[in-house]
Design a protein that fits this description.
UDP-rhamnose:rhamnosyltransferase 1, 38% helix, Rossmann fold, UDP-glucosyltransferase activity, 6-stranded parallel beta sheet, 2 domains, glycosyltransferase, alpha/beta
């Protein structure tokens, strides 16, 4: 009699920067013959990649209804749908999914649950059913090491911790390091991690409870890139820490005709006309909400740099329409060397195009992996969460140029242009470009779980 495959339940936080890596991890598990139940909400599932046909027998989406709560806009099911201030109400609603989770677990035979930092309520449910837990961290080893042991997240000494403590490496990082938050970053992340929100649970408390309950921590990392920080994480966490690899996304064919303002053919025809490794791809993802001055300064920098660029720009919430999202006349002045594509673009296809030579982006971990798997030169402008630490490590390793900022975090077009030209065309940046290309073999390694 054939043995039933292991059944693993996947429970990510409702942010695409989390759901996408969880999706890729799920695909890898299914390829290894493990049955996967991936839990999310209906609208999020619609926006995730399609399950590859060959994995459908083992990979299943499970839809949970997202309860309505005060402060959460109708139809908002992920952080991308919200302002930063509204995210706390998504956590309130997410926590109310516990009854659906308990009902699902009760009727299934589950061998393991792999979950994110946020669903602390799953701990007691899993314990009742004697189901072991693995916390999967979608963040780099450097941020896991920086925040350290779960006791430091909620212990008594935490009451005396201030944002200033985040501006230098913590005491448990004993080797020389420049990796720390800038003051303007530290103030924001301190509030986001340690301050109480509408859900009555800080992110630090969620993380601490999860780390104390799980049997192992899986990290999306590899020792070849950030081995020293992975080693710190293995020392400060009590349980086993498993490097599952970088899990780079795999390019799949899909319909790309919904690029707003341009057909996909127009974009790729334009890319085909550019020189190899000459184009800067500009994208700041879905989580960072750029204000008008930031968008306009980026535009000014691209114009000053006078380098071929492709800018994937989501229309900001403050913009009336696409034209309002850019400085007056910008597109006409840069038409000879640049393209702005509003809305969704086939990012993996673009990054794999031979004319792309560099990226201007926020230094989120997922985007670093997507970019370095093609060996592109990096210009980083960190905006939220872990991005500042990621940017410092890239610079420390000689893999990126970081855009200069003032003490309060502001930047201007001249700063953008200077960083772009340094990374893309200056003689001074040649070693950086070579090191980035050397990273391709590491960051493109699919590996096997």
């Amino acid at each position: 009699m054939a043995r039933e495959p292991l059944h693993v339940v996947i429970l990510p936080w409702l942010a695409f920067g989390h759901m996408i890596p969880f999706f890729h991890l799920s695909s890898s598990l299914a390829k290894a013959g493990i049955r996967v139940s991936f839990i999310s909400t209906p609208r999020n599932i619609q926006r995730l990649p399609e399950i590859p046909a060959e994995l459908e027998p083992l990979f299943n989406f499970v839809q949970f209804h997202l309860p309505s709560v005060d402060g959460l806009p109708i139809g908002a099911e992920a952080t991308v749908d919200l302002t930063m201030d509204q995210t706390q109400f998504l956590k309130v609603s997410y926590d109310l999914m516990d009854t659906q989770f308990k009902a699902f677990i009760s009727k299934e035979t589950v061998d393991w649950i792999i979950l994110d930092f946020a669903p602390y309520w799953a701990v007691d449910i899993a314990r009742e059913k004697s189901i072991p837990l693995i916390m999967f961290s979608v963040l780099s080893s450097v941020i896991n090491a920086f925040f350290g042991h779960p006791d430091f997240l909620t212990a008594e000494e935490q009451k005396d911790r201030t944002w200033e403590s985040l501006t230098s490496p913590p005491k448990w990082i004993t080797f020389p390091s420049t990796v720390a938050f800038r003051p303007f970053e530290a103030k924001v992340i301190f509030l986001g991690v340690f301050e109480t929100n509408a859900s009555a649970k800080t992110d630090a408390e969620r993380m601490s409870e999860m780390l104390n309950a799980c049997q192992a921590v899986a990290m999306r990392t590899c020792k070849e890139y950030e081995g020293e920080y992975f080693d710190v994480a293995t020392k400060v966490y009590r349980q086993a820490v498993i490097p599952v690899g970088l899990i780079p996304p795999v390019l799949v064919e899909k319909d790309r005709d919904n690029v707003e303002g341009h057909s996909s053919g127009e974009i790729f025809n334009w890319l085909d006309l550019q020189k190899n490794r000459s184009v800067v791809y500009v994208a700041f993802g879905s989580e960072a909400k750029l204000d008008r001055d930031q968008v306009f300064q980026i535009a000014h920098g691209l114009e000053l740099a006078d380098l071929p660029f492709l800018w994937a720009l989501r229309k900001p919430m403050w913009a009336i329409d696409d034209d309002d999202a850019l400085p007056s006349g910008f597109r006409s002045r840069t038409a000879r060397f640049g393209v702005v594509a509003f809305g969704w673009v086939p990012q993996l296809d673009i990054l794999s195009h031979p004319s792309i030579g560099g990226s201007l982006f926020h230094s989120g971990w997922g985007s670093i992996i997507e970019t370095l798997q093609h060996g592109h030169t990096l210009v980083v402008l960190p905006l939220v969460i872990d991005q500042g630490l990621n940017a410092r490590l890239l610079v420390e390793k000689g893999l990126a140029v970081e855009v200069e900022r003032t003490d309060d975090g502001k930047f201007n077009g001249e700063d953008i242009a200077k960083a772009l030209r340094m990374a893309m065309v200056s003689n001074e940046g040649e070693d950086l470009r070579l090191r980035a290309r050397d990273m391709k073999s590491i960051f493109s390694d699919q590996g096997q779980l």
